[in-house]
Predict the structure.
Amino acid sequence: MKLRQFVLAGWLLSLISFMSTAQQNEFVVEDIRVEGLQRVALGAALTFIPVQVGDRMNQFRISQLIRSLYSSSHFEDIQVIRDGQTLLIRVRERPTISNIVFEGNDDIEDEQLQESLDDSNIRIGEPLNKTVLTSIENGLKDFFHSIGKYEAQVDAIVTPLPRNRVDLKLVFEEGDSADIQQINIVGNEVFGDEELLDLFELKFDTPWWNFTAEKRYQKQKLGGDIETLTSYYKDRGYLQFQVDSTQVSLTPEQDSIYITLNLTEGETYTVSDVELAGDLLGHEFTVEQIIPLKAGSLYSLAQVTFTEEFISKYLARFGYAFPTVTTIPEVNEDDKTVKLTLSVDPGKRIYVRRINFKGNAVTADEVLRRNSVQMEGAWLSNTALETTKARLSRQTYLEEVDFETIRLADEDDKVDIDFNVKEQASGSFNAGVGFGDRTGLSLQAGIQQDNFLGTGNRLAFNINTIRFQQSVSVSYTDPFFTVDGISLGGSIGFSKFDGGSANLIQFNQETISLGVNIGYPVDEFNRVGFGLNYLSRSLNQTQAIVQTERFFNLLVDEFNPDQGIDYDTFLARINWSRVTLNRGVFPTDGSEQRASFNISTPNSDVNYFTLQYESRFYFPLSRNHKWAFLTRFEAGYGNGYGSINGNDQILPFTDNFRLGGSDSLRGFEVNVVGPRAIRRQRRTALGPDGRPIVLGRESDTISIDRRTLGGNAMALASMEFIVPTPFLPEGLTNSVRTSFFVDAGNVWDTEFDLDDFEGLEIVNSALPELADFGDPGRFRASAGLSIQWLAPLGPLSFSFSRALKEQDGDEVDFFSFNIGQTF
């Protein structure tokens, strides 16, 4: 009892002494001074000082003051001193980061490291909080451990600079990665080790030639492999499958890892019943008919996941963008069946408040907005959003398109949609350089802008100065002449063509062209167009060629047969296109099909028509679309209709189809593929009077030239294997394409009758036999490598090719380099 009284008395005396001391230390603040400020303004510092002149200060208020100043993150040392009735605060500011350097990092890019530092508010120009450096070092070490580099070291070096600044250097010693020596799977009876390990991305004991195999341990990839293994079993009916434990063992040398997975397979389960519960907005019948889950089928987690996603996407088409679909299994262990109940809560119908476009520095907002089928104020439709994304992705002036749905905190039934776009070069200076063993050096130049002044309209101005052609043309197209997507365009041009310099027969042609076209959208993928072109041509032929005489005889002046011909043509055009490509430039999925029919109007000087069809089909071979396969096919046919002076009209040989060159049949020079020119000479003999007598046509001789003149029929097929470009920075993956290709094709003349030359002697021929003319089976083929780059100044292309199947007299082209080549 006395001891308790003694303790109580001592406590009371201590309390009285403390209160007396506290009262003696209290004072009324008459002035406040802050010393040590350099970068921080006095006004900014005072906002963190919760004391004013006239306040009474004590130990508690001082603690609050110090805590408040530290929370500003500007100071690393703070002292509070009483100087009479003045409150003196001495501070030492945290140094400002002048520069951040990373050294020795191979597995982590500088950008990733800077993002990690940004999360800790460590960036250039900001004060350095040294207390977080240790946690950053430890966090980076943990990352290296997760990818199998257990010897990695990370050191943060701070170098003081004048004016309270510092340089921060993060030095990495990553060390060698620990390789996986073995992966053991324990507990599997249904599937063998080899079958299961083939599913894993992590590998071990791989042959030396499989250099792409991932033998280095990575924690994230191991987690992904476990998920793959779980899905493999549960997709095959093993509902109760589970991985019981995972052991990752590191050798004492820290250079090898052993992984052991202990699993329980369980037994297969059959679906006994599928029941839909909740509110499906009256679409129960449709959902029941479409979903793959059926009673009596083997349980499959993939089908369950697909069904949940399908119902969610289906309801999202009607504005219910955030439904909750939950599958509730009821397991019957007796007969190994499971009843699946799909509980559906559609939630509220969601409306779009605003659609925003971000990242478009050049393209006008309205140009992007006109491609949107999702309207502001309407209910949200995922189908409309995906359609809008696909439309934008097909624009050649956009490299990447993505969208984000942002829910509004104050309105739970409204969202904003943010479309994030990445623009790419849409204007280019086009130039081309080519070299062949016969044509020599060729040049071309031009300017094209697919997004003229950000309007989305296309303006092209091209000048060609190739050895065999000089031309200038201007075209302009507005793809949205009306809000409904009706396009309108026009073009004007002039060209001079020398066939003899282009591996063709010797003729000269001048052409003036003027055209207009209009296009109509049929649906999301199909489009039809109509056009009318006026062509005024002057044609001169310097050599008599059998195949061209028929066309010249239709128009030549019989009183002056050596004079050239002039003719005007009004060419009407109808075309159809279907485009489902996933991108406008360098697509990897989808298809493009085009067909056109051109016919000259009856009031033209010559009457003819052409039919053309081309298609491209892309097949992605990997989920990231870095590997893909392309098939391409083109075909064309043309002929004349009607007659002139009783003679049937034919396709003008100047409009013949041709193959060869970097944009058609690679591996061959421009225009070398197709029928050769034939010259027919009459034989003479001396008569009894010594004068020459012209013999009958059966005595004629013919000569075959190396030069071609094309044909009225054409077919071209191509296959390309698109592969990732090695050693390419991540930012250029969508701008560079590498592919291996095989091309095959031919041009022939359906109007050529080989029987007309049967038995005639071939003299002075560059070729050993009469070939090609009416035989479509005499195709050519080539193979090679192609690299294309959408550079800032314009698209570049490089190809190296080799002819696989050629005919006598072909001029092959092994190498080409082009700037501004159309892809």
Notes: The first strand starts at residue 27 and ends at 28. DSSP finds twelve helices and 40 strands in the chain. The first helix runs from residue 2 to 25.
